[in-house]
Amino acid sequence: MVKLAVDGGTAVRTTPWPARRLFGEAERAAALALFDQAIGSGQAFGYNGAPEEQYRQQFAAFLGGGQAHTVNSGTSAVLAAVAGCALPPFSEVVVPPITDPGGVMPVALLNLIPVVADAVPGSYNVGAASLEAALTARTSAVLVAHIAGDPVEMGPVVELCRQRGLKLIEDCAQAHGATCDGKLVGTFGDIAAFSTMSGKHHATGAQGGVVWSADEQTFWRARRFADRGKPFGTTATTNVEAGLNLNLNDLSAAIGLPQLAKLPSIIDRRRAVADAIVAGLKQIPGVRPGWIPAGARSAHWFLRVEVDPVAIRVPMGDFVKAVSAEGIPVGWPYTVITSDAEWFRSQIVFGTPGLPWSAPQYSGPRHPEYALPQARLNRDRQFNVYLHEACSQDEASDVVAAISKVAQAYRA
Ligand SMILES: Cc1ncc(COP(=O)(O)O)c(C=O)c1O
Asked: I need a surface site. Which of 1, 132, 306, 350 has the fewest CB within 10 A?
């Protein structure tokens, strides 16, 4: 039996992962051009100028139509998207069990009650059945997140929301270009939010986000919220509602433009690497690729791998530690279950703990308990492999070789 690197053996891989090189000459040139223009004209660049407008149009074109608005983070995009739905205050919004806090906190901050749905078998994501179990007479909207770039099975979710008259918000922070039944995620619901911070598939500089909708009214409401209620999309002449200043800016959008041009090839290259890993994993007893719905195509922000606790005799933490020691970037467990986070458990949203759950206008449970057995099980049994578009078939082979080596050593 070969000796694992974690036990002092030779690692499968001794060189680091290739650098991602997300930003290059095109992004530098775009930023410098904006500075040159500002210096030449004596006018500082700002926001809502030509680069931002161009980026918005090109982003909307990427999604096949509709309208895009640029904001300063993915969290801001979720906030503006939820605000754009104009939900009744203190109604319930169903949220994912496994996601970034920035994909949930906006709900509570808008005086809406987040209700956590369970995951579906084999996934970090929710599905129609788990969402339906979380619905009450107080539910006004469903917010789904396509975690890891793996699409939620959207057909039945759209149907559920249609039948129940619920708004549907898609958090596509991790899923630029992912598809479900050939349709891009983000285009299934009433409104979608994207994060364009520099860890994502494509970026508007260091931070950023996009809110997108094909529905005029929803879009303009989101846009007004994102800029202090300015009367965008109305004939009013003063600020028409309360909002925040969530604006992006022209410099970030200028950097985002060449990024957007690269996005299709970024997605293709991630898929090529992930496909090779998935094919290899299918040959290894005791592990398998994380489930995604039939007809879905992931954008692979990362790749989920499921370990069979009966076939593998060591705890998950030991398994992942051993794969990591073989030189592969992996992580486990992925994030904190939404309702286990301190802010959620202690209900610290506004000054007085308890709000919005404790508001007299809310008639649901003030201290809900969430078992979420499927989400916990899937989170316990799945670890993440961190791949990106600069990875090649070499990295894919190393991932498969390392997982195979560890699985063989630890097979029951
Ligand atoms: C699913 C999800 N939603 C929302 C966010 C928040 O995005 P940002 O970090 O750009 O605010 C993230 C960030 O990674 C995310 O993964």
From this structure: 1
**Helix extents (H) in 139-249:** 154-164, 216-225
Pairing of strands 296-297, 179-180: antiparallel
In angstroms, rounded to a whole number, what is the distance separating the alpha carbons of residues 158 and 169? 10
Residue to probe by mutation, ligand 1, list 95, 150, 174, most atoms within 8 Å of CB: 174
pLDDT(316) > 90 = yes
Instruction: Locate the ligand 1 atom nearest the alpha carbon of residue 174 and give its number.
Output: 16
User: Is pLDDT at 285 greater than 80 in this prediction?
Assistant: yes
Cβ of residue 170 lying under 6 Å from some atom of ligand 1: no
For 251-264, write each residue's pLDDT tens digit. Answer: 999 999 999 999 99
State the distance from the centre of ligand 1 to the C-alpha of 362, rounded, in angstroms. 28
Residue found by looking up tokens 């925040």 in the block: 244
According to the model, what pLDDT value does residue 1 have? 76
What distance in Å separates the CA atoms of residue 367 and residue 288, rounded to the nearest whole number?
A: 37
Looking at every residue in the chain, the average pLDDT score rounds to: 98
- Asked if residues 54 and 195 have their Cβ atoms less than 8 Å apart, the reply is no
Structural domains present in the chain: 25-259 (3.40.640.10)
Q: Is the CB of 252 under 6 A from ligand 1?
A: no
Please report the atom of ligand 1 found closest to the CA of residue 78.
Answer: 4
Average pLDDT over residues 333-350: 98
Q: Which of 195, 196, 202, 204 to mutate to test the pocket of ligand 1 (most atoms within 8 A of CB)?
A: 195
Tell whether the model's pLDDT for residue 57 goes beyond 90: yes
145 close to ligand 1 (CB < 6 Angstrom): yes
pLDDT tens per residue across span 220-230: 999 999 999 99
Spacing, Cα 71 to ligand 1 middle (Å): 13
75 lines ligand 1 (CB under 6 A): yes
**306, β-bridge pairs:** 288, 382
Q: Residue 174: which residues within 8 A CB-CB, separation 6 or more?
A: 145, 146, 147, 148, 149, 195, 200, 299, 301
Give the tens place of pLDDT for each residue, 59-91.
999 999 999 999 999 999 999 999 999 999 999
Q: How many residues does the chain have?
A: 412
| Distance of CA 228 from the midpoint of ligand 1 (Å) | 22
Distance 75 CA to ligand 1 centre (A): 6
